[in-house]
From TrEMBL:
SUPFAM superfamilies: Supernatant protein factor (SPF), C-terminal domain. Residues 26-108 form the GOLD domain. The gene is LOC108616109. Belongs to the EMP24/GP25L family. It is found in: Endomembrane system; Membrane. Keywords: Developmental protein, Membrane, Signal, Transmembrane, Transmembrane helix. It is a single-pass membrane protein; Single-pass type I membrane protein. This is Transmembrane emp24 domain-containing protein 2. Residues 1-16 form the signal peptide.
Length: 202
């Protein structure tokens, strides 16, 4: 029961987000971490252009930890070396027209020292650091599964919308094509009838 409660406390820190970054726009997200905390970031561009976007990760003093001009997906994990606010930015300023739809996770896992030191711990969920270490390891595996499920759900939703769009176009064309052919046939019959019509002079 104690392990289950600990997992429930840790899982809300690993929520996934689905966002749209418009052309010429930069979207930044922040989270606080202490020294030795584990920071895990993962993302994937789902829609838009070549499905790439610029990514930046900044330390609390604006030190550049990671920078890439065009990434379609990525997973980055590092230990915080300073206390403060860490920044994740997605930059779509190089795109002239196309917005980018992407899913990302931004997770901060507390270091085991956070639970050993009673002055740092702000809750009473876990009293023994060894048990907390096991909970962290188990929750990280659950988080990985959760990330994969959210990614597969987003991909399934995208494929479902594409399939529905293609199906609608096929149905519309199957109705429009015969209707157009029937209309042309009626016009041709009417034209030929008028062309060969013999007018009698009384």
């Amino acid at each position: 029961m104690l392990i289950f409660i600990g997992i429930l406390v840790l899982l809300p820190l690993a929520r996934g987000f689905l966002i749209t970054v418009d052309a010429h726009e930069t979207a930044c997200f922040f989270d606080r971490a202490q020294v030795k905390d584990k920071v895990a970031i993962s993302f994937e561009v789902m829609e838009g252009g070549f499905k790439d976007i610029a990514v930046e990760i900044l330390a609390p003093d604006n030190e550049m930890l990671y920078h890439a001009e065009a990434e379609t997906s990525g997973k980055y994990t590092f230990a915080a070396n300073k206390d403060g606010q860490y920044t994740l930015c997605f930059d779509n300023s190089k795109s002239t027209l196309t917005p980018k739809v992407l899913m990302f996770h931004y997770t901060v896992v507390k270091d085991i020292g956070h639970y050993i030191d009673p002055h740092k711990r702000t809750d009473d969920v876990v009293e023994q650091s060894v048990l907390q270490d096991y909970i962290n390891e188990l929750s990280s595996q659950i988080i990985v599964v959760q990330h994969e499920q959210e990614y597969m759900h987003a991909r399934y939703k995208g494929h479902l919308e594409l399939s529905a769009n293609v199906h609608f176009r096929l149905v519309a064309w199957s109705i429009f094509g015969p209707s157009l052919l029937l209309g042309m046939t009626v016009i041709e019959i009417y034209y030929l009838k008028r062309f060969f019509e013999v007018k009698r002079v009384v």
